[in-house]
Specification:
The protein has about 120 residues and is an all-beta fold. The strands form 2 sheets. Strands 2, 4, 5, 6, 9, 10 and 11 form a 7-stranded mixed sheet that branches. The chain has a 4-stranded antiparallel sheet with strand order 1-3-8-7, with no helix packed on it. Strand 7 and strand 8 form a beta hairpin. The protein is globular. It starts with a strand and ends with a strand.
């Protein structure tokens, strides 16, 4: 049984930083595709950051490029999202997601099999 659990969300002022973490059980991140998505009320789920199997390369949406960093800790089997220079438009529920092997080359939401419950990020 695969379970992903996010943590680290909260409220922060514009310009501040937060670090989200996602811990996995029943699943090993490294050989698989990993990503962070977000969803604001009334909007579709948006892929913001992706890391390929074996952490070979990363992809960021234009809206977060240069401000967010996705990373993976193999020893702890956790996925993280460092968010700097936060803006009010970053307010959303953030979800970690994990998929199968073989590069997905991006954040096609339909390809990710496993999802966390989400953590709220509010920027004022």
């Amino acid at each position: 049984h695969v379970q992903l659990v996010e943590s680290g969300g909260g409220s922060v002022q514009a310009g501040g930083s937060l670090r989200l973490s996602c811990a996995a059980s029943g699943y090993t991140f490294l050989p698989h595709n990993m990503a962070w998505f977000r969803q604001a009320p009334g909007k579709e789920r948006e892929g913001v950051a992706y890391i390929s199997p074996q952490s070979r390369w990363t992809y960021y949406s234009d809206s977060v490029k240069g401000r967010f960093t996705i990373s993976h800790d193999n020893a702890k089997n956790t996925l993280s999202l460092q968010m700097n220079s936060l803006k009010p438009e970053d307010t959303a529920t953030y979800f970690c997601a994990a998929g199968g092997r073989g590069d997905y080359c991006g954040t096609d939401v339909s390809r990710f099999q496993y999802w966390g419950q989400g953590t709220q990020v509010t920027v004022s």
